[in-house]
Amino acid sequence: MNKTAVVTGAGSGIGRAITLKLCQQGWRVAIVGRRDETLQETARLAGAWASRITPCVCDVGDPSAVAEMGGRVLAEFGEVEVLVNSAGTNAPRRSLEVLSLEDYHAMIATNLNGAYYCVQAFLPQMRARRSGTIVNIVSDAGRQASAKAGPAYVASKFGLAGLTQSINAEERAHGIRACAILPGDTDTPILNKRPQAPDAAARARMLRPEDVADCAVFCINLPPHVIVEEMLVRPR
Known about the structure:
With 236 residues, this protein is of the alpha/beta class. The chain is 44% helix and 16% strand. The longest helix has 29 residues, at 101-129. The chain is globular, with a radius of gyration of 17 Å.
């Protein structure tokens, strides 16, 4: 297997943690994010494995930018075995009463449309090769709505869970598998976008990005005939 991967949202949080674990296991990883400085920080944290990282500045909500990024990565890597869709966002004013149309569209664009664009950028070569793993970092809000998450985030994550199921329904016969990881509260920078950011005590009770990364890497490393279609993981 050609150990090449693309990880979106790799400039922080879960995407960064997955990137570092894959690099440690010998993978070449194209890391995708909107800001070069955060991608460079991920590469710096990789230390001795930094040479395995290719930073790609890209807004996944922009289909033309994703198509350009996909072409660049495939030209450099030749093929991509694993895609991890970890990019996600929310907004402080998230309840139905105050949610702006702009924030609604931004969440759908990043959390759902961006994953779809990335899947379409890399799926054809997976299908042609009859091999590939797609991991979508969803949320437990993609299984059960909560006022804490807000309707736009919930809708985007329900959609991402459905996209995962659709990939398996259509592509498993072509050697491709998809896994939805549904984490509960996780101590990542997106928490700062809550109406009231959790304090240190609350964050200490949450999952760590590395916990979710372990789940994703476990699914990636399973034998090709095994599909973990959905994994729900919450703090104890």
